[in-house]
Write a structure and sequence with these properties.
- Strands 1-2-3-4-5-6 form a 6-stranded mixed β-sheet.
- It contains 11 helices and 12 strands.
- With 278 residues, it is an alpha/beta fold.
- Helices cover 40% and strands 17% of the residues.
């Protein structure tokens, strides 16, 4: 069973993880977290008898900062690290300026505290994923973001990024992460169909943990996407949306909101419905 490396974002447990796995070409990390978590990532590797320079590959689900923000900094420290990402995401790793400008507008003065430095990934280190990456089946999984991909290992583990939602072990509640600007509910429905068709044995989530009740989990995510998006479509304010989300959770509110703040979920769904109306 894989287990997440807890990157302890801002000192909080079970918010952002990364997975260390063995591939056909040596050790790899699946997602790496932001630059603010690099010391914790380095400590986890050392605890397993590894240095950063022992990791040969970085498999990115998508380029959001909580999943890939440290990629350029890691390559700068380890020039042999090979970075795998979708074709849509690759240009934003080569030149992260647009990504950073967009994130700074969203997070304001909190950007540096939350995420730290964004550094470019050299073109020589960057690889666009195909149908297979280092022995893992690789496929597009849009919905959360247009450039999202998943990796399915031969042992049945689906490294799902955010495509299978947020669930903080040991809780059962599945939250749909819907930050702006790219949420696409129709694409996400098709992705959930594809995840079910591929029938993984377990889901490895960055936020946070590994779960084997795959069918129940995906159905709950599908249902809650419908419920939460309908609230915004029907006119709920941000405050009303957050209050309803808290009521849905009942417990573990704080750790879930650290992983996916309710205001971001609301903003992404509101943008989705505004684009639909336009």
């Amino acid at each position: 069973m894989p287990e997440p490396l807890d990157l302890r974002h801002l000192g909080h447990e079970r918010v952002i993880g990364s997975y260390l796995l063995e591939t056909d070409d040596g050790p790899a990390l699946q997602d790496c977290g932001p630059t603010t978590c690099v010391p914790e990532l380095r400590d986890h590797l050392a605890g397993r008898g590894l240095a950063l320079t022992d990791v040969r590959h970085l498999l990115l689900s998508h380029i959001h900062l909580d999943h890939a923000g440290a990629a350029g900094v890691l390559v700068r420290e380890h020039p042999g690290l090979q970075v795998h990402v979708s074709e849509i995401g690759a240009p934003h790793l080569l030149d992260p300026s647009r990504l950073e400008n967009s994130a700074r507008r969203l997070y304001g003065d909190d950007f540096d505290r939350l995420w730290g430095e964004l550094a470019p990934v050299p073109e020589a280190n960057l690889h666009v994923v195909g149908n297979e990456t280092l022995g893992l089946a690789t496929f597009p999984s849009p919905g959360h973001a247009a450039h999202h991909v998943c990796y399915l290992d031969r042992d049945g583990t689906l490294y799902a990024g955010d495509a299978a939602g947020v669930r903080i072990a040991p809780a059962e509640f599945v939250l749909p992460p819907t930050p702006p600007p790219e949420v696409d509910l129709e694409a996400w429905e098709r992705t959930l169909d594809e995840l079910q068709r591929r029938a993984p044995q377990r889901l490895a989530l960055i936020h946070f943990g590994v779960f084997e009740d795959v069918g129940r989990h995906l159905e709950e995510l599908r249902r809650r996407l419908d419920e939460w998006s309908a609230r915004v479509r029907d006119g709920a304010s941000e405050e009303e949306f957050a209050a309803a989300a808290e009521a849905d959770l009942a417990v573990d509110r704080d750790v879930y909101e650290q992983a996916m703040p309710f205001w971001q979920s609301y903003a992404g769904l509101r943008r989705y419905w505004e684009k639909r109306a336009a």
